[in-house]
Amino acid sequence: MTKYLLGLDNGSTVIKAALFDLAGNEVAVARVNVDMLSARPGHYQRNLEAVKAGNFTVIQEVLTTAGISGESVLGVAITGHGNGAYLVDADGKPAYDGVSSADSRAKDIVSRWYADGTAKKILPYTLQSLWPGQPPAIIAWFKEYEPEVLRRAAKVILAKDYVRYLLTGEIFTERTDISGTSLYNVLTEEYDPRILEALDISEYRYLLPEVKKSAEICGKITQEVAEHTGLQAGTPVAGGLFDIQAATIATGIVEASAKLKLNIVVGTWSINQYLTKSPTEDENLFMTSLSTQPGNWLITEGSATSASNLEWFASTFLELERLIAKYEGKSVYDICNRAVAETTPEDTDIIFLPFLFGSNTGSEINGSLLNLRMRHKRAHIIRAIYEGIVFSHRYHIEKLFGVIPAELEVVLAGGGANSREWVQMFADILQVPVTTTKGAELGALGAAMVAGVAVGEFSGIQEAAAAMVHLKERFEPDSTLRGVYDRKYKEYLRCIECLA
Fold first, then answer.
1. Are 185 and 195 contacting, i.e. CB atoms less than 8 angstroms apart?
2. pLDDT score recorded for residue 38
3. Residue 131, SS3?
4. What is the pLDDT of residues 242-295, one digit of tens each?
5. Cα(267)–Cα(331) distance, integer angstroms
6. How many other C-beta atoms can be found within 10 angstroms of the C-beta atom of residue 141?
7. pTM here?
8. Residue 177's pLDDT is what?
9. How many CB atoms sit inside 10 A of residue 187's CB?
10. Which residues pair with 217 in a beta bridge?
11. β strands within 178-245, DSSP E
């Protein structure tokens, strides 16, 4: 009987389940949307009953689609969006809606922490920026404005930890995920009282759960869950991992090496990251978090300035194209890709700033289309959106390295990796080779790899990657486009400067 590994990926709005065999082949995928709730400006929450129903639905659907029984699944692991806050009471019931990492209610508190020196004080321990969607900021906001919520809560956990709790009845967090929250000392790997004291949330230390390893078994599928999902009761569930870590190992980047490899995730967030054995304290860097491999740290530059901007444009302005695509059995993004293929970078000087969900420049700039003229067509605007998103990634990469190293190799993940036109554009704008990997759900693949290690199918993440990660295609940069894209990138930066 063929054996399988199940990976769950809980994003801010989409829940995905993917089933893999031990060779990394993606056997079946299921997805369901869980709408974000926003009763007030800056408040972004998830109904936790809907999260539960969504996860149970995709598990059941993926088993049905694959035509297998739960006893064929060796193990399960979950990845999910980092940060945010999921509060549960002493009975394990939700004490509040799940607060998303996109939440900005605590913006003024974070500004205060930067103004009064708190951020600088804890930087040597956290090695990352403070921002409103992190658990300490959300806890501090509840302390100041709705303390009754914290009185109801027994634990504050993260998205994938909540899903693991639903499956097993056990509450833990996990080292890669908690290391990206500004609650954890990423050098000593512990909750550091100096951090909690500086943030003035020491009295809520009891809310922080025990920390487990990614490939550590943290419970088993309960009988109740088995009845709802089709999984077999007693199936091991691993600790899981931070979604940015899942994407990294699923592209084969497992450990820091002499060859400089960068993982770019083109998804809801612009994620640009590499592994190092020598983390540095730099207030200008977004995040340093723990890797699945001991002695390795993941250095990340990121912001909500990536493919979600294209998703907004397509859902807002391409209604007719969505209907046509559906009729043709295609995606609206196939039409967008065709528009890019039919134009060249010289055809238009439109500049798109992909700041619909926030800027990555330190200033309050909104999304913008600049240099529009009467001659411009829909295809020119779509190309500008693709280019602007790549420019945003380039901005982050230059923060990581100063200048883009000539020896850099990029492995691309996320929804954008499904567009050959977009991947080639990344290679041309960055002027480095870009490789894609097989499979659509790399977050779920990373989780499945961890599950495979947890149940003993692989000796470690290195062996899991060797067996389950398969490179797809390599895109070489077109050196003749360096000049035109460098000029447009300079114009992109000048537009930001002027608007700021």
1. yes
2. 87
3. coil
4. 999 999 999 999 999 888 999 999 988 899 999 999 998 999 999 999 999 999
5. 16
6. 21
7. 0.93
8. 98
9. 16
10. 238
11. 184-185, 190-191, 211-212, 217-220, 236-238, 241-242
Please give the Cα distance from 455 to 448 (Å, whole number): 11
- The whole-angstrom separation of Cα 276 and Cα 49 is 39
Distance CA 262, CA 399 (A): 13
**DSSP one-letter code for 291:** -
Q: Is the Cβ–Cβ distance between 330 and 289 less than 8 Å?
A: no
pLDDT in tens, 344-389: 999 999 999 999 988 888 777 999 999 999 999 999 999 999 999 9
CA distances from 29 to 233, 250, 404, 445, 471 (A): 22, 16, 36, 11, 19
- pLDDT value for 169: 98
**Model pLDDT, residue 8:** 98
For 141-176, give the secondary structure using H, E and C: HHHHHCHHHHHHCCEEECHHHHHHHHHHCCCCEEHH
Pairwise CA distance, residues 274 & 262, whole Å: 5
- The CA dihedral of 351, 11, 180, 7, to the nearest 10 degrees, is -130
Tell me what pLDDT residue 267 has.
87
* Residue whose tokens read 């694959």: 66
Tell me which residue has tokens 């029984």. Answer: 69
Q: Are 431 and 450 in contact (CB under 8 A)?
A: no
For residue 306, the model assigns a pLDDT of 94
Cβ-contact 160, 177 below 8 angstroms: yes
pLDDT at 257: 87
184: region left, alpha or beta (phi > 0 left; psi from -120 to 50 alpha): beta
Q: DSSP state, 404?
A: -
- State the Cα–Cα distance between residues 265 and 273, nearest whole angstrom: 9
Element (H, E) at 57: helix 48-66
| Structural tokens at position 404 | 């883009």
Q: What are phi and psi of 39, to 5 degrees?
A: -75, -25
Q: Tokens 């990469």 appear where?
A: 397
Residues of the chain with pLDDT under 70: none
